[in-house]
Specification:
By secondary structure, the chain is of the alpha/beta class. The protein is 44% helix and 20% strand. The chain has a five-stranded parallel sheet with strand order 3-2-1-4-5, with helices on both faces. The longest helix is centred in the middle third of the chain and has 17 residues, at 70-86. The radius of gyration is 15 Å and the shape is globular. The two termini are 29 Å apart. This is Indole-3-glycerol phosphate synthase. It comes from Kitasatospora kazusensis. InterPro entries: Rossmann-like_a/b/a_fold.
Length: 153
């Protein structure tokens, strides 16, 4: 069985689940999902990303989204785990509020993961300066790290 640690920042859509569960063809996959919701950190960078993508309406609402309760993150995680299981994958997970990359390294070591998938919305400013999760994770985890863009649906 192929072991994957999947980092996400929002609930998985049907398209996201299909993408991550079919990457390895017919091979069975187990996932440990680390949900790190968009929080207060890097609000300015996220606002610049929204402007770069033409999502001006999101810039105005960005502050409101950062006030999301931990319950919303937990519900998004549970939704994602249910969808992965329905697709035939084994899936467990947790919400990570602080130090997501440190927790990622711990989970990779504890589970003997084969790879890390980082599934996020585009973050152009962070990516340009290599401050996005995937770029930072490549120096921490010791397994291949693949960055994928989440579906907008």
């Amino acid at each position: 069985m192929f072991k994957t640690v999947l980092m996400i920042e929002k609930a998985l859509s049907d398209a996201d689940v299909e993408l991550v569960t079919t990457l390895h063809g017919e091979e069975k996959v187990s996932f440990v999902v680390l949900m790190q919701p968009r929080g207060k950190q890097d609000e300015l960078l996220r606002a610049l990303d929204d402007v770069a993508l033409g999502h001006l309406d999101k810039v105005v609402r960005e502050h409101d989204e950062s006030e999301a309760t931990p319950t919303l993150a937990g519900e998004s995680l549970e939704h994602s785990l249910r969808h992965l299981r329905t697709a035939g994958a084994e899936a467990t997970g947790e919400v990570v509020e602080e130090s997501p990359l440190d927790r990622l390294r711990e989970v990779v070591q504890q589970t003997g993961a084969d790879e890390v998938l980082v599934l996020t919305s585009p973050h152009f400013v962070e990516e340009f300066f290599h401050r996005d999760w995937a770029s930072l994770a490549r120096h921490k985890v010791g397994v291949p790290v693949l960055k994928l863009f989440a579906s907008d649906s």
